[in-house]
Structure formats: structure tokens, C-alpha cells
Design a protein that fits this description.
Elements (H helix, E strand, L loop, with lengths): L1 E3 L5 E4 L2 E2 L5 H12 L7 H9 L7 H17 L10 E6 L2 E6 L5 H13 L5 H12 L13 H27 L3 H12 L6 H13 L3 H19 L5 H12 L52 H20 L9 H14 L6 H11 L9 H20 L2 H21 L1 H18 L2 E2 L4 H8 L7 H10 L8 E2 H9 L15 H16 L13
Parallel strand pairs: 6-7
Antiparallel strand pairs: 1-2, 2-3, 4-5
Helix pairs in contact: 1-3, 4-5, 5-6, 6-7, 6-8, 7-8, 8-9, 8-10, 9-10, 9-15, 11-12, 11-16, 12-14, 13-14, 13-16, 14-15, 14-16, 15-16, 15-18, 16-18, 19-20
Length: 525
């Protein structure tokens, strides 16, 4: 006899499935199986089957379910024709007498506990945890209704996630990143906000020499956390990101990554999902001269005027170009034209930052490529805007914001001034204008220690807002600062979304006297 709960509820005898009855009867059976060899009181059965809405007299219904379950179990035989399971009535409640090893859920728990008990033996741990993970066939108690079934699913999903992370970490320490890369990507779709799982996947990609994919993966995680939770990656993941950027590639364990002759523990059965590595960034460095506009000129008008020159340049750059898979060449051409025509990759301050970083060790500051990477991402967003690809532009801006945030956090005095012009251009495309001189605004955007301008600007860009009504950055900052409660933010994580929305809304009233009452009315559809 075999009982399966990790997926649809099944009872199999001699290899054939038995008919389990109604979903409500299956809940009664599942409660008894989950609590195998432990009594379940009648009151607990009522609560787990009906929750807060039991019938007027639930006991007769439960007695009928229990009677049919007893008849069902009599059809299931063990070795030699013996009774494999039975329901007994005891003083403390109803007990299912069954061998826990015949239940996939209990086998999973035993194997996971064995894996936890082997701290010094990664090979045995990986093999045991892989065996446990292979027991999963789908959503636990799939199709069963009620709050109790939902709680069981959530609890066992968390145990599965913990086991998966420990399995992947053990494989990584054994020097077998390929096993992690093969199994984990599909599973991250089931646990999209699980940073430890993403951490070991990015580690494995990096250790396998696939640094570009590791950076790409970090960007996916960063965007997902921003969109779902309004936050960024934790410190461990950010530290790993800086390591990948710096090019450090320590071996993952005692075995060789490039020539792994050891026999890996079988990976959990999932499909491989790996995409092509992104094309390298175009190299273009110039000065800030092409960005200069007279003080008092509207930033929105300046950005609009720049778009015309870009369109012609991008057309020239892509003319006669040989096709490449996935449109990579066209994107490269657009970026190169944009960088050359209207968006320099670094300001004069960025040049100084670049020169300073070239002579530094990996642990002494942000990698030199990060400044150029931030500018490239801002340029990518502008190129996608030109092509009308709003979703791609949004993704590139999110990446650019997080790279900028990393740089500003690591070296605020050097990074913020270098990135201020790019941030300002991105704000212009989002419909944000300003009522102070451009030079004064750049000074404030370049001073994250004494002003909230960088943090609030990053927050606006990260949330993907596109304003149709006039929104002035200086008015937004002033309103935010005068709001009772939250302190003046110096980091992106300190910006309160509700306070920021209220500050934006109030800025349109005080500056332009609009009668807009809802924040969403300010946004482009």
C-alpha cells in the first residue's frame, strides 16, 4: 500500500489507485494521514474539514466519512495480504495506524531530517535531500478545499524550499555547480521571492564561468523584488553581485568546476531553463558637453529635442547590419548610436571615478565596470523608449536604478555626481520636471549624504511612474520633507511609497492648482 499527499491525494494498492470519494471525505483521510499514529479529536476533525462554517450537526457526517474510509482501507493490503492500515477509535480521538514509510509526506520528512543530521558529509547530504525532493509530484493535497489544507500546503512548501536550498548549497560546495544550474531555474518560478535559492544559483553560474548569466539573473531577481515587494535584494545577495561584477571567481569546493569527475547526487527532476548570455556592453566614453543645457530650460523640452537626433543616428547605425538571433545586433546598434549621439556613458566625474578605480583591489570599492554599466542601462532604457517598448524600457530603468543605488551606497561622494545627469534624463522621460536651475538640481542629485534628492529620484524611477500632469521634483522633495512622520530619506529603502505619492499629488495642486484627488489620475494609462 502507498499513500501520496505530495500532489493529488492517492491511495494505491498493488499498483492500482483506489476510489477516495468526495473532496470532503479526502480531507478527513488527509487529516488522519498527516497525523499518522497520533489521535485526532473529533473537534479537530470538524475544524479542519469545515473551518468556521460547520453544519449544525457535523458528527453524523464525520461518522459516515470515517466508515467509508475504513471500508476503503480494507481494500488496501500489505505484504502477505495483511491489513496495511486501519482507523481506530481511542479515548483521545481517531488514530490511523499505518507505516509512515508508506506515506510520501512522512518519507519526505524523514529524509530531510537525515540530510540535516549530516553537517560534515555533503555528498551524503546532497544524495539524501535529492531523494526527498524527488518525492514531490505537485501541489500538496492538490484540489482539497479549506483553510487547513492551505496551511499544510504552505508549511510543506517551506520545508521543500529549505531542503532545496540545502541540497543546492551542498552540490555547490562539492564543486558541482552544473547540477544546481540544471535543477534550480525552473524551481525559482515556484518560489520567485526566495533569495537564498537565487543566491546559490547565481553563485553556481558564476563558478561555472557564466558571469554574464549570473549578472542577468541578479537583474531578474532585483526587478521581481522591486515589483512585488517594493524592496531590493538583501545584503548577502548584493555582496555576491559585487563579487561577480569584480570578476572574482573562487572555486566552489574541493572539486574542479571545469572537469568534474565525481558522481553528483541526482538532481530533483526539473527541466533545464537557461538562456543565452547577453551581448557585451558597447564601449563609449565621452564628456558631459553634449548634456549641457542652459539654466532655466525645461528638462522635459531638452529631452524631447534630443530624441530627434537619436532617431537618425540609430537608423544609420543599423543600416545593412547582418541579422543576429534575438535582435541582439539591433539593440547593440541602437545603444552605440545613442551613446555616441546623445547620451555619454560617463561625465567628467565618471572619468575621475574610472581612473581612481582602475588601480584599486576588488575589495576596496565598487568595480570600475559598474559606473559604465549604470550609464549603459539608462541608455538602453532610452533606446527602448524610442522603439516604443515600454516594458523593456521599464526593466532597463529598474536595473539602472539598482546599479546606481549600489554605487551611491558604496561611494556616495564619487558615484552620485557621476550618475546625476543620467538620473535626470530618466526623470525627464518619466514626465518629471524641475523649477530650479539645472546646475543646482545636479548638485542636489549628486549629494546623497545631505539631500534626499537621489533617494526620492531613485524611488520614482523604480516604481515606473509616468506622469501626464506637471510634476516638479523640487516641489515633491519639499512636500515629502514637510510630511509629519517619516524622516528625510537618504537611501532608497527609507522612501515610503504612500508619503511619496502624497507629496507628488500635493505638488501638482500647490504648483499648478489642479483639482486632482487621486494619485493614479496623474499617471499615463
Amino acid at each position: 500500500m502507498e499513500v501520496r499527499l505530495l500532489g493529488e491525494v492517492e491511495v494505491r494498492s498493488a499498483g492500482r489507485p483506489l476510489v477516495l470519494g468526495t473532496p470532503q471525505q479526502q480531507v478527513v483521510l488527509a487529516v488522519l494521514v498527516v497525523n499518522a499514529r497520533r489521535p485526532v479529536a473529533m473537534e479537530a476533525l470538524v475544524d479542519r474539514v469545515w473551518g468556521d462554517d460547520p453544519p449544525a450537526n457535523p458528527r453524523p457526517v464525520l461518522y459516515a466519512h470515517l466508515s467509508r474510509i475504513r471500508g476503503l482501507l480494507r481494500q488496501a493490503t500489505g505484504p502477505g495480504g495483511t491489513v496495511a492500515a486501519r482507523v481506530e477509535r481511542r479515548h483521545a480521538g481517531y488514530v490511523l495506524e499505518i507505516d509512515p514509510e508508506s506515506v510520501d509526506l512522512h518519507r519526505f520528512r524523514r529524509l530531510v531530517e537525515q540530510g540535516e543530521d549530516r553537517p560534515g558529509d555533503d555528498a551524503a547530504r546532497a544524495a539524501t535531500l535529492a531523494e526527498a525532493l524527488d518525492l514531490w509530484r505537485g501541489e500538496p493535497l492538490a484540489g482539497l478545499p479549506g483553510a487547513w489544507a492551505a496551511q499544510v500546503r504552505a508549511s510543506w512548501h517551506q520545508r521543500r524550499l529549505d531542503a532545496l536550498v540545502r541540497w543546492a548549497q551542498a552540490e555547490f560546495r562539492l564543486g558541482r555547480p552544473a547540477a544546481v544550474i540544471s535543477a534550480v531555474p525552473d524551481l525559482t518560478a515556484e518560489y520567485p521571492l526566495a533569495e537564498p535559492l537565487e543566491h546559490v544559483l547565481i553563485q553556481s553560474l558564476h563558478a561555472a564561468g557564466r558571469g554574464a548569466e549570473a549578472l542577468d539573473r541578479y537583474g531578474v531577481v532585483r526587478r521581481r523584488l522591486a515589483e512585488e515587494l517594493g524592496t531590493g535584494p538583501g545584503e548577502e545577495l548584493r555582496t555576491l553581485y559585487r563579487t561577480v561584477l569584480a570578476g572574482d571567481r573562487p572555486p566552489p569546493g574541493p572539486a574542479s568546476v571545469t572537469e568534474d569527475r565525481s558522481d553528483p547526487a541526482p538532481a530533483p527532476a526539473v527541466a533545464v531553463a537557461a538562456g543565452p548570455a547577453p551581448a557585451p556592453a558597447p564601449a563609449a566614453v565621452t564628456d558631459e558637453a553634449s548634456l549641457a543645457v542652459p539654466d532655466g530650460t525645461s528638462h522635459g523640452a531638452f529631452v524631447g529635442a534630443s530624441f530627434g537626433s537619436f532617431a537618425g543616428a540609430s537608423a544609420d547605425a543599423s543600416a545593412g547590419a547582418p541579422p543576429r538571433a534575438g535582435g541582439t545586433f539591433r539593440r547593440r546598434a541602437l545603444l552605440a548610436a545613442l551613446a555616441a549621439a546623445i547620451l555619454p556613458v560617463a561625465t567628467t566625474a565618471a572619468h575621475a571615478l574610472r581612473r581612481d578605480e582602475c588601480g584599486r583591489g576588488h575589495g576596496d570599492g565598487p568595480p570600475a565596470v559598474s559606473v559604465e554599466r549604470a550609464w549603459e542601462l539608462f541608455a538602453t532604457a532610452e533606446a527602448f523608449d524610442q522603439e516604443g517598448k515600454a516594458h523593456d524600457a521599464r526593466a532597463a530603468v529598474v536595473d539602472a536604478v539598482w546599479v546606481s543605488e549600489e554605487l551611491v551606497e558604496l561611494a556616495p561622494d564619487r558615484s552620485a555626481p557621476a550618475l546625476a545627469p543620467a538620473v535626470l534624463r530618466a526623470l525627464g522621460r518619466a514626465g518629471v520636471d524641475f523649477g530650479i536651475s539645472r546646475s543646482a538640481l545636479l548638485d542636489r542629485l549628486g549629494d546623497p549624504v545631505r539631500t534626499p534628492y537621489p533617494a526620492i529620484s531613485h524611488a520614482i524611477l523604480l516604481r515606473g511612474w509616468r506622469f501626464t500632469a506637471p510634476v516638479f521634483l523640487d516641489a515633491v522633495v519639499r512636500n515629502y520633507e514637510h510630511t509629519p512622520g517619516p524622516a528625510s530619506p537618504r537611501h532608497l529603502a527609507d522612501v515610503h511609497t504612500d508619503t511619496l505619492k502624497a507629496a507628488v499629488l500635493e505638488s501638482t495642486r500647490t504648483r499648478h492648482g489642479t483639482r486632482t484627488t487621486e494619485f493614479d489620475q496623474l499617471l499615463a494609462p
